[in-house]
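Q: What does the assembled structure look like for these inputs?
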Amino acid sequence: MSGDALLSLSDVSKHYRVRLPGARRASGELRAVDGVSLEIQPSETFALVGESGSGKSTLGRVALRLTDPTAGTVRFEGRDMTSLHGAALRAVRPRMQAVFQDPLGSLNPRMTAGAIVAEPLSAIRGLRGSELDDRVDELFRAVGLDPSRRAARPRALSGGQRQRVSIARAIALEPRLVLADEAVSALDVSVQAQIANLFAELRERMGLAYLFIAHGLPIVRHVSQRVGVMYLGRIVETGDVDEVFEDPRHPYTRALIAASPVPDPRVARERVVLGGEPPSPLAPPSGCRFRTRCPIATDVCAHEAPPVVRLSPTRSVECHHAA
Ligand code: ADP
Ligand code: MG
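A:
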């Protein structure tokens, strides 16, 4: 399977040296991502879910080599990304693109929407004149924007339209992988569904794969095939999205599902209360890092790191009590 994977992370960590409160020098090690392996196949959407601070964005940035991992390897299209530099890295970059939460923050406010989408095409592909114009129109239509909106500046567009411009720019160079980091989270619920549908449509049309980071579980279930549940820098449960959401095995996954708003509030549901805040990634608990909030923790959880229990070739869970 790994031979064909588009993206393959193996035992990836990203630790930051940080200043502890009151300390004069950088003296703590913050384990933002701590030993994560995952694979994304071509045309597949892999979602990352988990509370804020669990390491999802850091993992996304490492996956696209926007930052270097502290340890582990990142392979994209079979090549070790961490060994690529200069021209070789620039040649790969167009094939991995990102869309972030706040398009106002990432779109140049002085440029028109058309110029924003045209920029990578002229800078990297060298397109000019009518060839460039036609391609920009085509991209606007591909993301559901009328080409007459080309003259608008980001501020004159709605949130959903701005996100469509970001997506048009991201797909301009025909990437194979798109990181969507909370790309729908700031939008109204109805617009979230439209943008999620656009992602799904582009996946089918262009064979795109996504690393899709979101905190709304219904949207994750709607757009992705597989999911990884992150807690304090680790993926504690992973599998096909329907399996994980219908039969969650990790107590943290159960708590996340229980805490997620249901479309129909009359539907009764088992409440699993996730108390308090996650511990600091500067000092994760010994043994299992979820044990301090876990309703089924026992002695062993404090003393031994949980095993990775493989429930099927695509399904695993990191818990002493999963079997
Ligand atoms: P998420 O996207 O799941 O909310 P992040 O990946 O943004 O989580 O952050 C994971 C942890 O890493 C957090 O504790 C965060 O404060 C820390 N972190 C992220 N980026 C940095 C950085 N550049 N320097 C130090 N700590 C960081
Ligand atoms: Mg984040």
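The pocket of adenosine-5'-diphosphate (ligand 1) is lined by residues 16, 18, 30, 32, 50, 52-58, 281 (CB under 6 Å).
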